[in-house]
# Entry
Amino acid sequence: MRRVAIIGGGHTKFMFNSPQSGIEMLAEASMDAITKSNLKPKDIQAIYCGNVLGDFSEGQGMIQSYLADDIGCFNVPASRFEGACASATMAIRDAFMWVASGHYDIVLAGGTEKATAMGTSLATRTFAMFSDGRYEYPSGINFPGIFAMLAHLYSSKYNIPLKKLKETLALVSVQSHFYGMKNPHAQFQKEITVEQVLRGFTVSSPLQLLDCCPFSDGAAALVLASEDVAKKLTDKPIYFAGVGQASSGKMSAQYKYLPRLRAREVSVKQAYDMAGLEPKDIDVCELHDCFSIASLIAAESLGFADFGKAGELWEKGETKIGGKIPINISGGLKSKGHPIGATGASQVYDIVRQLRGDLVDEGRQVEGAKVGLVDTLGGDGVIVNLILKAD
Amino acid sequence: MAFKIEYKLSHKAYYDALKKGKLLGLKCKDCATVTCPPKMTCQECTGTNLDITELSGKGKIATFTTSYVAPLGREVEAPYTIVLVELEEGPWIMGNLIDIDPAKVGMELIGRKVKFGFKVFPGDLYSAGEGVRPLFSFAD
Ligand SMILES: [Zn+2]
# Structure
């Protein structure tokens, strides 16, 4: 396989009630990525994009084809990926494979979502589609409910009193808002306090409002190129060092591992093995913090802490810039926002900027970061991990 | 001779049994693991040498949540308590917990013994018909 690099990216502001359509948002992010890569739409050979709920939010399926046409990539093969919140990361992994294989030299990958147009009730219904519809939805399971149950299980399994766990989880949200405040693309640009988190209304016990990411609209896109092409177009190519992806069944069927998500351990091992790297080699990480507890669960499976111990990372500030493993310096899904079809592309976009050293002006640069890890979770069953590296 | 692949226990057959108060699962003839809710293959060894078995419907609460937000069409149900129950035969299944005030549940629920009942979910625009949910109540 050939080496593949990301050579440019684009990112809309994440927000509530975007005036733009899902295609418009992704078209802007895409053209930004193409332009920053010193390319024209006609140079793009294929498109890979994530979009989850356009069918429900805008009555728009098959956005990939209309996107291609909208930005002037006439008649290129364009594919849509659906893996719930991991959709765009899936798209990027496949885009990588097609370039690594030698089939294409330059491709576009990204994702878009216009979730807030659905309103809270329909959004809650459609997000619940990423749990088992036959055997678990009849019980009224929903997106926060999954992680709420994992939070209680985490407390019970690792003997952490719930009150103590809740205080630790609040620190996760507080840190996300601290960095989100510095990210111009973030949906929420305000600091919050532990007291505010613990005062919020309960969404699904024990998770309160500020333990939860918001519904969001937004898009992000990246241009991928083979190493030889990349070197002609940019002096700061960011390479794929390792990729991984795994799936799992309905939540109840994962009982042997919960609150661990076994698929993540399978996926990230693929990425580490391919890269020849270990958790200690990662300089900066964007992980899937759809809910505060999800950050702890993810950090452990990614190898940054022992099981039941990840809370200490946040308590000791090890997840901040200057800490042992800076996590979600973008503000994460919690503060930056979570337009589900775009989230993975947004995570990659931020890691690429970290590895290029582009975030000094925003006050979010992890100094000297050379290796970054992306972790995206879809529903209770899809995980994608990417390890990116600066030369 | 034609060979037909079919589910030993389809969701329809599982639902029909639930509505009669019977909780069915699949017992693997090779490794003895019980799979519930049903799947095409054994949860443990992926084999298809499976027998339909009736489960006791008894178990203990592994985890829970009380949800204060509800999906479209189910707003009147909130707040409601969802539980994952570890059945005596091994597998975990999801259901609702009744006979309690959903607003007052806490960590003491974990480990409580429960027994199985059922309630029909009439379905919505997206569910392709009705569903049946396990409804647990305290057994101790
Ligand atoms: Zn078996």
User: Anything to note?
Assistant: The interface with chain B takes residues 120-122, 124-125, 128-129, 132-142, 144-145, 148-150, 152-153, 155-156, 162, 201-207, 249-253, 255, 258 of chain A (CB under 8 Å). DSSP finds 14 helices and eleven strands in chain A. Chain A has two domains: 4-119+215-239, 141-212+241-390. The mean pLDDT of chain A is 98.
